[in-house]
Specification:
single chain, 5 helices, mainly alpha, elongated, 0% strand, 107 residues
C-alpha cells in the first residue's frame, strides 16, 4: 500500500477543487456554439482572433470534432457565456431546423 500516500480527506479536497472549476467550464453543444456566434453576427475568424486560435479550430469546435483546450477553453467559454446572456434565444438548442435561423427574416 505504499503507492497510496494521499489520505482520503486530501483526496476529497482535490476532487472538490476539480469539481468547482467545472461549473464555469461547461461548453454548450456544438450547434449552440454556432447559433450564439451567428446571433452576434460574428465570423469564425473573429472568434478565433479573440480567443487566440486558428479559424479551423473554431470550425471544429462548432462541428463537435474537437473541444478547446486550456488556456483557450476558458476564453471561449467566457465568450459563449457572455453571448448567451445577450442572446438567450440563441443559447437554446433548436432541434427543429437544420441551421440556426435569423429573427430578421420572420415577420
Amino acid at each position: 500500500m505504499g503507492a497510496c500516500a494521499m489520505s482520503d480527506p486530501d483526496r476529497l479536497k482535490r476532487v472538490d477543487a476539480l469539481l468547482e472549476g467545472l461549473d464555469e467550464e461547461v461548453l454548450p453543444p456544438p450547434r449552440v456554439r454556432a447559433q450564439l456566434r451567428l446571433a452576434a453576427n460574428l465570423t469564425q475568424q473573429e472568434i478565433a482572433d479573440a480567443v487566440g486560435v486558428k479559424r479551423l479550430s473554431v470550425v471544429n469546435w462548432e462541428l463537435g470534432k474537437s473541444t478547446p483546450r486550456r488556456p483557450h477553453r476558458q476564453a471561449y467559454i467566457h465568450l459563449l457565456n457572455q453571448l448567451a446572456k445577450r442572446f438567450p434565444k440563441a443559447a437554446v438548442l433548436d432541434l427543429g431546423s437544420a441551421t440556426p435561423t435569423s429573427e430578421r427574416g420572420s415577420g
